[in-house]
Structure formats: C-alpha cells, structure tokens
Amino acid sequence: MATTVSLKGVDWARLVDRARARILPLVSVLIFVSMGVDLVVNNWAINDLLGNGYFFATPVASVRYAKDLALTYAFPKGRAPADLSNVGQLLANTTVRGLGCKSEQMYVISAGDYPLTNATSLCATFQKTYINVAVSSALTTRLATTTETVTFYRGNAVSHAFTDDATANLATRAMKSSELVDLGYIPGRSAVDMRFTREFVLANSSLPQTQSISYFRLFPRNFCSACDPVAELGFGACNMTFVYNATAKTIVVSSSTFIDGSTYTLGLIQPRNAFTTLALYARCLAIFIALSGYIASRLTVHWRDVDLTKTEGVVSHVLRVISPKLFPYQSDALTPDMFCFNSDLFVFLYSISIVLDTQNCFIFVRNVNVYNNLAPQAAPSIQMFFLSLRFLWLNCAVLKLLKIFWNLLGTVAFTGHSNVIEWLNWSSVVSVYVSAIVLVYIPQFIEYSNNTFIELQGHAESLDGIRIEMFDSFYVRCASSLAVGLIVNLVLVTALDHGLNHKRWKLLKKHTLARQAVYNSSSILCDFFSDVQEDDSIVADPTMTLSARRLCTLQWFFSTHLTCFGLPEKKLRAKKQTVIQVQTKSAPSTASSAMTNSRSVVMSEAAAAALLAGFKAGKDDPRNATYYLVVQDGEANVHLLDGALSDIQSISIHAKVASNANLTIK
C-alpha cells in the first residue's frame, strides 16, 4: 500500500500523483507528434522528392565522369581526379554520375543551413598552386581540388575506459599504413574530399588579389572497400588571397580563410535500397496500426468468447486487430503512450523500421551534429531529438523479445513462477522515458568510440591495396560497445524501477489480471494496473475495481496486440474441486449447475488459498460472488471467472457493459 509522506502539512505523494496525471498526457501527445514528425521530416524519400538536395549537383551537372572535370576546373598538380587511386576514382565517379543522372540508388537530401565559426576549418584546403588555369574572354575561371584519405581507428568506448589506447603510443601523420597497423590501428573508412569554386573574375594583374569566393563540397565516403558511397554535400564561402600568373597559367592561393557571419548549406547522399524502402513501409504500417488500434481502444470492444471448435482466419484476425466490433461507449482502457510502447505489433514493426534505417539515421545525425553543435539551431536540434526518440522502441523490443524467448525455453510451467520474467517488466511508461536519457547521447558515444584515429592521405602513400572490412568501419565497429551500453542502460533502469516500486511489484504479483501482464504475456508495462489496491477484507488479497467496458477492451488488447503465453495457475483442478465441494455443502443444486456450466480454467494458488479461507470465515459465498478472476487457458485465451470459478460468457459481460457496471478483480 502506498505510503504518504507529509512535511509541514504538504501531501507530497498527492502532489506527485497530480503532477504525473498532468504531465504524462502531455508526454503521450508528444510521442504521437514525434512519430508524425519523424515520418514526414525525417523521411528521406520525401526529402529527395522535394529536390532541394540537387542544388549540390551544380558543379558537376555538365559531366558524367570525374575525369572530365579537368576540362572545366583548374586543379593543383597531383590533385586532379585522374590522380586518385582506383577506389578514389570509384568514389568520385559514383558521386558525380549519381548527381548528374539522378540515380535511383541514392537519396539526395537537403539538411539545413548552419552558421560557421572559427572552429569550422573548411577553407584552408584551397591553399595550393593551381596549374593549367583556363581563363574565359571575360577573365573568369574556376578552381577545384581533391584530397583522398583512408582513416585508421584504434579501440572503442570499452577499450578506452579500461586501457590507455586513447592516450599512449599514438600514431603520427608521417607514418605509413604498415606502421599504423603495427600500433593497433585498423582502416575503417575511405574518402575523397572534392571542392569546386564558383566562377569568379580575375584581375589581369600579377599583384595579390583578395575575393570572397563561394564553393561547393562533394565529400563521398565508403565503409568497406569499393562499397557504394555516402556523401556529405556542402555550399559555403571563403576569403581567398591569390596571385594570378597569366604567362604560366597558374594561380597561387596563399590564404583561404573563414568568413565571419557566413553560413554553410548542408546536404547528404544516402543509399536507397530494398532495406530503406522496407523500413519506410514498416514505419507507415506501424503508425497505421497504432492509430487504428488506439482509436478502437477509446471505445468498448466486444468481449470475445472462445470456441475451441472453430479456427479464426487470418483476415478476420487482422480485422479484429485494426477494426474490432465496438460498443459506442468510452472505455478509457489505454493511453497513447501505453499503446505505442506495449503493443507487440507496433513495437516490433517500428523497431524493424528503425534497424533497417539505422545507417541513414546515423549518417544524418552525425553530419548534422558536426555543424549544429558549433552553433546550435532550433529546427535541427528538434529534428535530432526526434531521431533519438526512435531508439525508445528498441528498448521496448529488447525487453519483449527477452520475455518471449524466456517463455519459449519452457523453464516455467505456471504463472508467477519465474523471477526472470518478473524483471522483464517496467511499472509505467516513466521508466521508458528514463531510459531515453542515455539514447540522446548515442551520437556522442559513437564519436567517443572513434576519437582515436589518424588519416592517411593519398599523396603520401598509394591507397590501393588497403582493405577496409565492414566490421571495422566507422559505425559497425561501435556496435559491440554500443550494445553493452544499451544493455547496461536497460539493467539500471529496470533495477531502479523495481527498487523504487518493490511494494507495488509485490502487490501486482498477487493480482490475477496483473499476473497476466507481468508473467503470462509479452506486456512490459503495467500502467493499466495503477488502481490495484490492497483489500484487508479478503485476507489482504489485492483488488482492482474497473468498469466492464474497460475490461472488454483490455481483453481485446491482450488477445490481439500482445503475445499471451497460456500458462496455467498451479493446481487448478484441485482448487476447482475444492470450490465445488464447498458449494455442494451449502447448496447442492447450485453446485450441480455450476459444475455443468463451468470450464476448467486457472487460478493462482495464493488466490485460491485466500478464497477458501474466506469461505471458512463465512465470507463471499460462491453463489453470490462479488469479485472476479482473470486467467488464461492452455490456448492462451483470456477468461473472466466468478468466485465459483465459472467462466463468464459474453452475454453477461455485455449486459454489464450496457449498464456501465463495475467489476472487482482479485
């Protein structure tokens, strides 16, 4: 029973309950809003369809292969596309051709505008000598340069925490690839950074000239040798000081610096394949199921009697999931967040979409954070927050899968006999939100895992022959340490929940309806049992008073949106026979009728013992039962029993629905 803590006349427990009652509905609305925003704003297909990202194709729109860029731009010696390694040319050609031909294998998206700061070093790379400068009759020209690199990484978050690999015996830029490998560095990414200035006017003079010159950036990267690349696209401006030599046809850029107050327009190329398409379909289907299911749960669903002689067809089951038979009465059985975080269908479908879209999500988040962290903007920050919220459903999916897996092991024969399954539940959605605190820092965690790195440049060593394994790549190499972090997060949140609510968990363990959620189904949240209370009048068994309308909707939710395990209560038949004997002593004819019409169903040992003790004390005669039990049969169907353990049929329950009667569940 909840303990009220008072200080100077203030009922803190009541204040907390009131605050929770006001805040959680707002959070529920935020969850639905976040899913809607995520579906639209973070929809790569819609972003690509709008076409804003194709602005970044401007510098390469007139060519189909990277080598042809030398006809349009002046490059430094050794920095032309033809000077790249074979893999570097593959990266450049794939990007140039994809932008020019609008490839169906990639999304080209716009990712916003960001103010630049002194910490953003994007201009210095132009400080080179450009040869074969072609000048038009109007004295205009264009410059371009490339930088090819392979990035080597060492360690991850776990090794950084327990060893000195992030601080000791670090590599230097003068080292070759073999020396880096000897130090424990592993190649994890190859990239080509290409910069293209817009056309600008030259003064026909040998004196230094200073201009503000806009440029485009195409920065393709791949995470395994010769894999399809992703790319950062950008548009910015630099202050350049240079000297033009008309005789030698050269331009020497002596200074290229950041322009205070300038902005950087960001875009991305992301892969489009069967996985990203399936992710979009899965997310749309999940949201459709959530909306249709939640709308249905607002009303009262018909109670379903189980006929073991008939098999429910797939179509009829699907219709019952999204459009069940309804009474025109409010049920108030489920909140939006309770539905979205506890429905198997929604959680698993949404989690599948998240996993399939993880690569694009991480690429987008990392590139946006690089610029947004330096000068935070409201819109990108909110967008990043909604992307981080996606991973809430992975937490829920992991708990559900563990719960289902443990049940499939068959280690438990009766409801309530598994301490492991008990720990795979949270008392409320508050624990879900607490688990999100860590999820917001996933991008920073990935950066920390990859913070020990060195870039080997193509002009220092031939990069052909350096093999990059997918499992050593920038994101995948963090998977193990990220998984450890997420599991630790789940364990800590679960321990905190059960520690703070240990009295509550003891109470739920004794209640038949709560037991169906905690021990006998894939449910991981117990918000719909917040009104379970101790009742000293029946040997301290907890009770829950709820309307028949609410109970009908909960039966539908258990049978369609959760996986029921069908575990029996221990020694059911013996308890049933004991109750029949009690009935026979008091009213033989009534007992005979009860034996004829009742089914063999399940009942907890604790509840049965309390029931019989009540009989001996003269309480709650089974013929006038005022309480009910919720149980499952061997086919995982949910039943409602009266005090005589007789199965209550839908006609009786629907009568209570019509009169809005309340039921007391033990």
Question: What do these coordinates show?
Answer:
This protein is an alpha+beta fold and 666 residues long. Among the domains are: 44-273, no CATH class; 531-666, no CATH class. Helices cover 42% and strands 18% of the residues. A hairpin with a 7-residue loop joins strand 9 and strand 10 (230-245). The chain is elongated and about 105 Å long. The two termini are 15 Å apart.
At a glance:
42% of the residues lie in helices and 18% in strands. It is built from 23 helices and 20 strands. Strands 3, 4, 6, 7, 9, 10, 11, 12 and 15 form a 9-stranded antiparallel beta sheet that branches. Strands 16-17-20 form a 3-stranded antiparallel beta sheet.
As residue ranges, the low-confidence spans are 1-7, 584-604, 610-625
Task: Classify the oligomer.
Answer: single chain
Q: Mean of residue pLDDT?
A: 86
What is the gyration radius calculated from CA atoms?
33 Å
Strand content: 15-25%
Helix content: 40-55%
Global shape: elongated
> Helix/strand/pairing class, anyone?
alpha+beta
| Major beta-sheet overview | 9 strands, antiparallel
Distance between the termini: 15 Å
Total strands: 20
Organism: Saprolegnia parasitica (strain CBS 223.65)
Protein name: Transmembrane protein
Transmembrane segments: 23-46, 278-296, 385-402, 423-442, 474-496
Keywords: Membrane, Transmembrane, Transmembrane helix
